[in-house]
Design brief:
The chain is mainly alpha-helical. The protein has helices at about 1-15, 25-35, 40-50, 80-95, 105-115, 115-120, 130-135, 140-145, 155-170; strands at about 60, 65, 150, 155. The longest helix is centred in the middle third of the chain and has 18 residues, at about 80-95. This is Lysozyme.
Length: about 170
């Protein structure tokens, strides 16, 4: 498991920080990334996997913000505006998941991609096994967390990789 996560982290670092392929530079990049506060690691991870959305990604703008009814945001925003919007969205989600303590950031990042209701349930949609496990005090959540890797019913390798990277960057023991 550690080697797969290690490879995933190195791939993320190469893309995020545009480092050369040598191991020493990649290791310095990993050290730099892990020296950041957890919130900053979360922002970097989301930016890497979401990318800056353009007109073809409507109703998503910035780094994956879903336009809400009545919201008038343009996809022609600057990186600074997109970053600010991402941080505001992530902080709102942190409030939603604050009862999960040290796992709140991990859940906020996951919900940014899959939606809060997929985790917390709503109407006929039940709570996810991940949330049920955390509520019962069981923090062995690797399998449940990485199970959120499907799009339109199909498992995507890049989504499984993203979940592993998120766990490696944000999970606190």
């Amino acid at each position: 498991m550690k080697t797969k996560i290690g490879r995933s982290l190195l791939a993320l670092l190469v893309c995020v920080q545009a480092l050369a392929a040598s191991n020493t530079q990649a290791q310095r990049g990993a050290d730099r990334l892990f020296s950041l506060p957890r919130f900053e690691r979360a922002v970097a991870c989301i930016k890497h996997y979401e990318g800056l959305h353009g007109p073809k990604n409507h109703p998503y703008v910035g780094y994956g913000h879903r336009l809400l009814p009545g919201e008038r945001l343009s996809c022609a925003m600057t990186k600074r505006q997109a970053d600010s919007l991402l941080r505001a969205d992530l902080k709102k989600r942190l409030v939603t998941f604050r009862r999960f303590g040290r796992d709140s950031l991990l859940l906020a990042v996951l919900s940014y991609n899959v939606g809060e209701y997929r985790l917390l349930g709503y109407g006929k949609q039940p709570k996810s096994r991940l949330v049920q496990k955390l509520e019962s005090g069981d923090r062995d959540i690797r399998d449940e967390y990485t199970s959120f890797c499907r799009y339109r019913g199909k498992e995507l390798k890049v989504m499984r990789l993203r979940r592993r990277v998120e766990l490696a960057l944000l999970y606190e023991k």
